[in-house]
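Recap from last week: sequence in, structure out.
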Amino acid sequence: MALPLEGVKVLDFTAVMAGPYCTLMLADMGAEVVKVETFPEGDASRRFDPKVNDESYCYAVLNRNKQSLALDLRQPEGREIFLRLARDADIVIENYRPGVTKKLGVDYETVRAINPDVIYASVSGFGQTGPYAKKGGFDIIAQGMSGIMRMTGEPGGRPVKVGIAMNDIAAGTTALYGILGAYIKRLKTGEGIYLETSLLEAGLAWTFWEFGAFFGGGEEPTGTGTRHRRSTPYQAYKTQDGFVTVGGNNEKLWTAFCDQVLGRPELKQDPRFNPLKARLANVDALQDEIEKTFLTAPTAHWVEKLDAAGVPGGPVLTYAQSWADPHVMARDMLQEQDHPKIGRMKAMGHPVKASAEFQSIRTPAPWLGQHSAEVLRRAGYSEAQIEELFAKQVVYDKYRDKG
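Predicted structure tokens:
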């Protein structure tokens, strides 16, 4: 059975995280993704450690199922190659600073002139318009400017970056659903479209509860550690050997938590903690009372009691512990594949499970320019022309002359 995007051609000239995450999802669903890279450095994430046999492991996990064309777009022949590929592409995605694609002659208007129904997507730090459009944008800049760093961390502490590249992933996800929506529309109407998003807007668009509280009640979200702003007990608590999370965020769960987990039914009558509004007003005292009990036994003991009582909860794991967890393993989130230079390596599994084949890991991430010659052949270039393009350094293959 075919993957859902089999036969869809994607021309990808994005780098690092936001764009490559978007095209990884497209590739995993079967799209043919040609990744256009500069040379001799390639995608900036190729520099990231750790490296195995001079290939970045970080780059490799984000760029599987793609082909690499190392191309000099500044040369007229390089631009011609790009446009020949763009003529047949269903989707083109880029993440240059606004204005760069126009300068290179590979912008939407240029591509649309030869491919009217193309879906062309741009991902940037701040969008294609507005006073910050030409400002450089990385994940940490967007986290800071979207208010996210101010609402992360402990109360009264310094601003804290989310532990992952949240705005990058948010932008890649936003671009992904925009592209898929545009593709569905094209199937219905035959019309192409230009769409764009930014790290700043994608991050802001994930702050729904904070948006509601701010515009509905003037509440400025600040760091609350692991606590929820609207409910408690809903945080991580210290145990004898670590931390456990608790989600007792309604009266039924609060009752079960007091009676069956803590064995302290008197907390249900304590005026400091009843009703919910009182619990929120006295959240520090509530934490102290809960941790008095939790510190008497290890995390595993409390997880067992929470599960038995039907109260959501779990251990606070290290990253290593998470990937060794039996449930994560049972859900096939950790897979393996063979890379031509790295060798046998770990691969991130698919978070979407489906009743039919929906995503697959087919090919490893390419070395820089691994498919340059192959892509040119498919585009109709002769062997003599390909040799000339390599000789003129219009295209590149890192291992072409190294056997």
